[in-house]
Amino acid sequence: MPAATTQPAVDHRFSIAPMMDCTDRHFRYLARLLSRHTLLYTEMVTTGALLHGDVARHLAFDAAEHPLALQVGGSDPAELAHAARLAEQWGYDEINLNIGCPSDRVQSGRFGACLMADPELVADGVAAMRAACRLPVTVKTRIGIDKDEDGERLLDFVGTVAAAGCDTFIVHARNAWLKGLSPKQNREVPPLRYDVVYRLKRERPDLTIAINGGIKTIDAARAHLAEVDGVMVGREAYSQPYFLARVDQDIFAAGEESSDRDAVLEAYLPYASRQRAAGVPLSRLVRPLFGLYQGCAGARRWRRHLSEHAPRRDADERVIVAAAREMRAAA
Q: How far apart are the first and last CA of the chain?
């Protein structure tokens, strides 16, 4: 076990879940325009990708994205230690270990939710990461695997991993069914059991416990914060990013006024221009924008214009401006 280190504080009161093909750097930049205090997470990056792939492609981010955590998937302690060193070198605020993903591909690589059955191995990985960097090392997990019903596996798992130096756990309040369900079904079919996460916090008040799963409103987030230390929101933040506009005031009591959608879009345009000049296609840059006007008059016209025009080879940020103009005309 590593010697205790002084780790910089990361506020987990409200965060956005790591989501494959969603929480890329362009979505994170948009999210930061909507909330200054929300903790952002990368998509999961495997330790293999960091050992053998293009490290810059996986780890580069805009300084505006802070506070930002890197989520990694893996089980080999030496490889996890390497990932932790890279996270610190690249300037992340936290490194998070994925013990929640249930996909077959992840299981075949022996990481993700299946590692709940091997808490000692996870503890070894956490200890190696802690020894390799000064960043906070956190774990995102499920409440159990397959048909666990009583929550005892979660308590035992957290106890073992906490002893290795992890003091923050983000818990998706569903079991992971390792056979018979797709990752999408695993986000919907296993029942939500918030009481299991609440019990974990009651029994381990010394730990920081954040809850994840099925949280779709700021009011629901505030209700959970009466029981646990933090809330992590997933698909709702991606499909309706303006959801984040209330977070700083209502969760962090920060006092800043929320930006309206048009102001957020105006602030995103220079970023899109810089990224396009660096070779990023406009079609990737507009993906986070599709839901920005969700619920507004003309939103369908907005999405359709982006869908039709952004993939063109010569498309630039004028497509975004034109889409906004069409939306207002339709409204």
A: 61
Residue 285: φ, ψ to 5°: -70, -25
In 148-191, where does DSSP find H-type helix?
A: 152-163, 183-186
At 131, is the secondary structure helix, strand, or coil?
A: helix
Produce one character per residue of 240-261: b if its CB has 16 or more CB atoms within 10 Å, e if not. ebbbbbbbbbebbeeeeebbeb
Q: How many CB atoms lie within 10 A of CB 18?
A: 26
C-beta atoms surrounding 8 within 10 Å: 10
For 26-67, write each residue's pLDDT tens digit: 999 999 999 999 999 999 999 999 999 999 999 999 999 999
Tell me the whole-structure pTM to 2 decimals.
Answer: 0.93
CA–CA separation, 223 and 216 (whole Å): 12
Per the CB < 8 A criterion, the answer to whether 298 and 326 are in contact is: yes
Find the catalytic residue in 101, 114, 133, 166.
101
Query: And the tokens for 216?
Result: 């779709």
- Using DSSP bridges, classify how beta strands 137-145 and 168-176 pair: parallel, antiparallel or unpaired: parallel
Write down how long the chain is.
Answer: 331
pLDDT in tens, 153-193: 899 999 999 999 999 999 999 998 777 777 778 777 788 99
Active site residue 133: no
Could you tell me if 37 and 11 are in contact, meaning their C-beta atoms sit under 8 angstroms apart?
yes
Coil/strand/helix, residue 7 = coil
- For 174, list phi and psi in degrees, rounded to 5: -135, 150
Residue 225: CB atoms within 10 A of its CB come to 16
**Rounded Cα–Cα distance for residues 137 and 5 (Å):** 11
